[in-house]
Each structure stands twice: as structure tokens, then as C-alpha cells.
Amino acid sequence: MTGFDRLRGHLVREYEKKTDRSRAIFRRAEKVMIAGGSHTIRLWRPYPFFAAAAEGPSVRDVDGNTYIDYWQGHYANILGHNPRLIRSRIAACLERGALHTGFEAGHQIELAEALVQGLGGREAKVRFTTSGTLATMYAVMMAQGLTGRDHVLKVGGGWHGASPYLLKGVKFHADDGFEGRESAGLLDEIVRRTLVTRFNDVADLERAIAEHGDRIACFIVEPFLGVGGFLAASKEYLERARQLTAKHGILLVFDEIISGFRFCPGGVQTLYGVRPDLTTLGKIIGGGHAVAAVIGPREIMEECEHGRGGGDRVYFEGGTFSAHSEYMKAGLIMLGYLADHAATVYPKIARSGERLRREIERVFAAEGIRARCTGDGNDVVCGSSLFMVHFPRTADVAYDRPEDIHDPRRSDLPMREDLLKLALLVNGVNVVHGGGAVSSAHGAKEIGATIAAYAEAARLFKKYLD
Fold it and tell me: What is the CATH number of domain 3-82+342-465?
């Protein structure tokens, strides 16, 4: 038995001692739900804990264990779980009746105005939907409908939800890198029309557009990569993307589902000074509810809605629960608070993110273990509350692109996704992909306890894996 297996066995036993009720609930779930749940990323081995309550920086499970949480609602809860600010002001909505009615309500107008203002205040229009997957799907449909083209260009390692248009180039495949399809059931023609380029690689972007520019409807990119590795785009890369797409009649789409309102009270695009044609937003803008949006200039949004020259329009209907009044109100409260307290919230969470990234690397180095954190900003994004931990196979791995992070020949993925996850859970910390997102509710006490948990994980790694 390898040291990896011995350590994993030890951690599983410790975790199982603490989570009897979660284990029983999961066994029940397995009988009626695919893999025992409704979202794959929430279903880690041997089984997930089940939450009973969550507030601020922490979540408590059904067994009474408390975890300092950096998943924070898929990175949506920038003020922490269930902030009292939003709960208290939503209470009036609940008293009036917050169940869905299927009618238009006024709060959506105010939230749309706040989103437009957060993207620089230019003349634009908004349509709401309920998930990031739907927002990016509709953005691609709009681009294809407007341009009459049928190819999509995206970044290898970029995740834009489970839309069929974009389920390619997400996971690294040993034989073809990021060129593989991510799911059965996709039409071969759609997969063929989805083109992949390398993140932050200006030359490769120029090549892709030179070869296929007259067939590409849109280039969709996260200015700050999420699942791809918490990597910031360079200013040169985004500026060149804007130049090339404008020259070739390609719509530039910024996926700001994660980055929107995470670094400043608006889109991170405002820091870069680069304006895309379409922007997708989600997560933070819902204040803890299911809200996503597509935003673009009036001429693009209206032409797609009414159809070119009176022809077929893009069928962007948003969904049954889109712009639900309670969701809109929660989003308004969230964005209003971030705008009013930007001078304190953003520097605080950026300092905490910086401290975690540096201290995590330090505690592993103290045990002779190579560990690297991504999530840093750059010369444009001056601070970041995101962090992701990696275990490089060799000392010279740069961690500049998703290939460094997702190629198992460069990074030890089981060590991060399996061992580190369990080692932190048994010490009261919950992470995803080795890290996560700091909220304003994470104080010095929680940050210190988190660093101590990583130090204990490093000690165990040294003991079992040396």
C-alpha cells in the first residue's frame, strides 16, 4: 500500500467518525438521485457532509460539525453566508408573499440600472435569467443570430457552464490537451464548430482568428479565469482580443459570472478599460438567489430581440423564475452595499486572500513540500480574494495558464482534490479545488485557523508521503 493510500485511509476514517448522520443521508440519496445529489462538484468521496445551517464564514453540518467555508455558495456569497443585511430587508418581501407570480415587477428595473452602472454606465440593455449556464448559452445564441456565423472561439480550461455550445475545452485530456468534448450527447457538428485557443496567448489568438475569423460568431473569455485556475488575463491579451474581434466582425463576450463584483463594485472589465460586446453576470448579483444576466449595447440587444430586418429573432425568454421580485430585491441590496462600502470590503478581502496564498505556500514549504497558490491579481487587478492550491510535479512549473494546472504531468491533482480536501475537512475547513473565495465575513480568527489547518495537512503529507 502506498503512502497516498495509507493517508487517504486515515483521513477517511477520521472523517467518518465525525459524520455518521451525513453518511446515512447520503446512502438514502444514492437510492433515488444520480450519484447521490444534484451537482457533481458537491459530491466528493467518500461522501459529502450535509449542511444544517450556514452563516457568515461558516457552515454547520447535520452532525454538529462546524467548518470555515471557502466555497461560499459557488463563490457567490461575497458577504458570507446568509448576511443579516439581506435577510432583514428581505423579511418584508416574505411578509407580503414571496412566492412566484409570473408577472413583471419593478425591482428588476432598478437592478438592471445598477448592473449597467457597474459596467461603466454606458447605454446598454439587460435581460435576466436564472443561471450562468443559461446566460452564456443565450450570449452565444445572440452572437450567432446577429452575425449569421456558426463557430464559437473559447479558451482552453475556461468553464462557461453546461451549455452544449461550450462543453468543449474544459478538462485537460492526455491525448489532445483541451481539444476534447466534455460530455456524451453533444452533436458532433456543434463540437466541431467550437474552437479552442490558449489563455493569455496573443499569438495563438491571432492564429485562430486568422484561420477562422470569417466563421466565428463570438470569442467568449473570462477576464479572470475561474475553474481554469484563478488566473488574471493580461491587459495586452484583452486589448488585442478587442482589436481582433472588432476587425473581423466577431462579438467579444466577457464571462464575468465569477469576476463580476468580486474585485470592485462592477465588472472587472472596468479595471482593464476593455469593453466587450456582451457581458454575462451571475453569482454575486443575486444576493444569494438564482440570478444571472446578459448585458450589451442597445443596438445588439434590440436587434437580436426583434430579428435582423424583421427576420427570426433569438429566443431569449429567460425562464420561469427569471427576474423573480424577491431575487431582484436581494440583488439590489447586495450591489448597493458593495457600492457604498467598496473602500472597505474589497481591500479587506484582498488582504485576506493575499495572506492565505502566501501562508499556505509557507506552511507546506516548512515541511519540504512544493505547493503553489494561484489567484493573485496583476498590474490591473491589484488585489484578489480568490485562492487555489496546486502541487507541482517539478519546481519549474510556471502556473501561467490552465495547462500548468490541469495537466497531471505538471500538477498532482489527486493530492489536491482528494487528500487536501479530506485533510482540511477533518480540521474544520471546507475548500473546493484546494481553496476558494474569501468573504467579508472571514475575519482574522478564521484566517488564522485556516492557515493552521493547512499546516496540519502539510504535517500529515510529510508524515505519510515522504
Answer: 3.90.1150.10
